[in-house]
UniProtKB/TrEMBL annotation:
InterPro entries: DUF1631
Biased composition (Low complexity): 252-263
Highest taxon, organism lineage: Bacteria
Region feature (Disordered): 240-275, 300-326, 655-679
Bias-annotated ranges (Gly residues): 264-273, 309-323
Protein name, UniProt field: Thymidine phosphorylase
Amino acid sequence: MSTPEDKPNRVVELKQRQGALSGSGDRLGELLKLVRGIALKRVNGLVSTLFENVDDALFHLAERAESNAVQVQFFDGMREVRKKRQLVERVFQEQLSKIFSDFAEGNLKPVRPEVANPTSGGLSLVDDQELEDSLAISSMVSKAENRLSRTLHLVNQRLGVIVGGNTVEDASNPIGPAPLCQAFRNAVREFELNVQVKLIIYKLFDRYVMSGLEPLYDEVNAELIRAGVLPQIRHQLPQSARGRGTLPPGAPQAGQSAPPAGEGQPGVEGGAYPGASYDPVAAELQAELYGTLRNLLASRHPRGEHGGGEAGSYGGGGGGGGMVPNLSPTDLLSALSILQSQTNANLSHAESVADAAKAVQQIKQELLEQAHRLGGNATSGYSVSSADEDTIDLVGMLFEFILQDRNLPPQIQAMVGRLQIPYLKIAILDKHLFAQKSHPARRLLDAIAEAGKSWSAESDVDNKLYDRIKSVVETVLTDFDDDLAIIEHELAGFEQFVHQHKRRSELAEQRAAEVTRGREKLHTARREAAREILTRIGNRELAPVIHNVLSRPWANYLVLTDLRHGHDSDEWKNALRFADEFVWSSLPKTTEADKTRLRTLLPQLEKALKHGLGTVAYHEGDVRALMQELSQFYQRLLNGETFELKTAEEVIADNAAAEPTADNPVAGRAEGAPATQSPVEEIVLSSGKAEIQEPEEVDENDESAMAARQMKVGNWIEFVDENGNRERAKLSWISPISSRYLFVNRRGLKVCDKSVAALAVELRRGTAILLEEVPLFDRALDAIVERLRQTHSASDEAPPAQGTPA
């Protein structure tokens, strides 16, 4: 039986063991070989179970398929899986073995599945498949890493010891969710499956393999403990998730005031809290702002009163003129804890801003009353030190600002407003809350506000964001006492939630931009084609057949040529040359030279026209009929006969009246524009004249127009419709063609697209409101400083009342 003193001797001297093993030709090492054996046995068994259930899953879906085509896809998928199952399982095993080999040699790169960005100008089918793959894999990995964070962390640490003390992360662990998913993804590429069937297999992999990883990790940990690898470490989260204790090094303790900005705070922004980058310029500005804030707060007290441990200016006094004792930090925090539980119960169903605002105003008085009861000495009374009074007032002003901040929707304001008491406890425990941008509680509030800025009922129909914010708020209200690790844990979880949804919304944004870009290219090409045709026929009176050819199929052919080849191409120039020659060919021929030229030109025109008609998918029967009609027209023209002449507007109007619609099968389409309408017909029928309207101009000096022009991609705005409904949208993309703005909601779905002029009009009317981009906490501190300055100036100008302290 071993004694506690024997345990350190049981820890494996892994470097020596690996050296001996490598000398015998075993590169993996005994323990890593053990882990590999456990992993291959368990994972291969799980994958085998997966494939045994593929048939049933696909057959069930085939039975419920909405069409024969979809049903065939599922049956084809079943056959493909049966045919290549053994190949895929073998490739998967080879992938796992290679991962372990790379890991043993130190060559395993961290696997972080991300949503790939298309490299081409558009989104191809292959790009869509890769994106769908990436989303499925990323979702599986993220879910598994969150669920298994504790046991996976222990495996990481022990594997790190095995490989000589190197750091092993989730993404570089050979049995981590990311490498396993990537290995399966590579193996599944052997199947020739459509996206839908492949995603079903990924779901089955998540159900049967990812959900079975915990027993694998438990077995690996147990075997390594049995071998003496870090037997003493317990179940604990990694540092990034656990936080760094109740207070950071050097933080003022409860009841102490923070040192003046810049004093006694080495590395204030750089090392006090994890997960935040250090910006020296921002840190200096923050220190200056915090110093100003402290001075303004101190100026409210009589000289000599503002200091740690001195009698405060707030509290119930006793009968005599002696000093009123201050509440101890313990009593103050105890009072806050009781008040926190009471407030949490009272506001569990309070969702309005008015309820939250009322609570903000009452907290200070209720806090002192609760502290009196805890002190058990109501006769003499208690007071709060000036430093703590300043903190109470500062947190109160912070939450008053939050409840008045137009950046946040009222529903989010009411929810965040419930955090006042926990944040008051944090501020009393650690004055760095207001002095440092990197403080986790500050970052959590900013993160909630930034995500909440994008919230609307329309963009969060499944309530995922609302429920996530609500979960964070309720966790802090319920669980936070004096340990900042809870705040850091909630911050990490919320940032991960936001990151996951951001990736999905970015994909939707990209697609919305592609659709809008394609629509704009088409619109521009149609305008240009119409301009070229109308320039040539204008108000000319020509034979109706000539107008019909140019204003319909040839205008559409110009559109396709522009989209495919551009304005500078030979195809475009040849198409315009045909239009010119076609118009000339239709004019009366009075000389033999003109008739000779026409006879020579006609075969070329016929060839070019047939090519154009074929390009725009003209029906063969229609092509033959048109060619016959043109042949008769040119015969009459060469014979010197007269025929009916009309303008383009007249011909297009006649066509519109002659073509039946669903609503009126007798009359035509004088109203509205069918999808098959050519660009020339669209302009003529919509405007009543052959003109193309130029885009509206914007006054350079207009304030609203300047604000609209200065918007950047990523800026948020709130639109208000005529019924008062509000929709929040982000500027996602600015068209390089028309400079129009594309706005999307938080899910990346298109809300609208607007010109600068239209947006300027809405900003001027107040039906569009720009939202602030500065973080909530920074804006709040600026507003508080301005408010205190105004109060200080007013008190300096007005003489104090008799018997009232200045």
